[in-house]
Specification:
single chain; 213 residues; mainly alpha; Arc Repressor Mutant, subunit A; Tetracycline Repressor, domain 2; 2 domains
């Protein structure tokens, strides 16, 4: 792929992410994406053929970081290492990809009707691996006997709050958009809540994992 082609595609993807995040799929116009990207509208169709294809590429750009974050969950056999790393990775995605994160969250709220089958298959397989990982820790007794599927859903919903609830957060924090310290505090708070619920007797001096026994 030529450097110019790659540059133009990236400009269009970034512009599309911002437009889809602000307006949603149905209300977004390709002319607005092209205008934001600073390229002729014809270039959008040359590189992506249709708005649907472009939207799918935007969603896939968020699925890939999600899969990387899930791999972190299983890199250690110790949930005190893996769970905090997983939560931090998911919060980092929201920090580094705010537009794509919002597009993805909005798509899920609309029953994922535009989510490509490729994305569905990847996410489903990865979710099952994650739940199996949690289940194995529960069976070994290193986590409390909770439902692994609902534990995973809780982590997903808690870490996705920072892309779904910007308006509410602005009223709580007094800032229009989350700052770095907000993301850091989010990761620390979610980690404490999760580990405090599934590992009730934890004492660690490093990072935030210090709980009363």
């Amino acid at each position: 792929m030529s450097r110019i082609r790659q540059h133009n595609q990236q400009l269009i993807l970034e512009a599309a992410s911002a437009e889809f995040a602000a307006r949603g799929f149905d209300a977004t116009q390709t002319r607005d994406i092209a205008a934001r990207a600073g390229v002729p509208k014809a270039n959008l169709y040359y590189y992506f053929q249709s708005k649907e294809n472009l939207y799918a590429k935007v969603l896939l750009g968020f699925v890939e970081p999600l899969l990387e974050a899930s791999a972190v969950l299983r890199e250690s056999d110790d949930p005190l290492v893996s769970l905090p790393a997983y939560i931090e990775a998911r919060i980092r995605i929201a920090r580094e990809h705010p537009h794509i994160a919002k597009v993805f969250s909005d798509e899920l709220l609309l029953s994922a009707k535009h989510l490509p089958e490729e994305c569905r298959d990847l996410l489903y397989a990865e979710a099952r691996r994650n739940v199996e990982c949690l289940g194995s820790w529960i069976e070994r007794g290193v986590l409390a006997p909770v439902d692994p599927e609902h534990l995973m859903l809780f982590i997903w919903s808690a870490t996705r709050t920072y892309t779904n609830l910007g308006w509410q957060m602005a009223h709580i924090t007094g800032r229009g958009t989350p700052q770095d310290e907000d993301y850091d505090n989010a990761a620390a708070t979610i980690t404490r809540l999760v580990l405090g619920g599934v590992v009730p007797f934890v004492v660690r001096e490093d990072r935030v994992l210090k709980f009363a026994t």
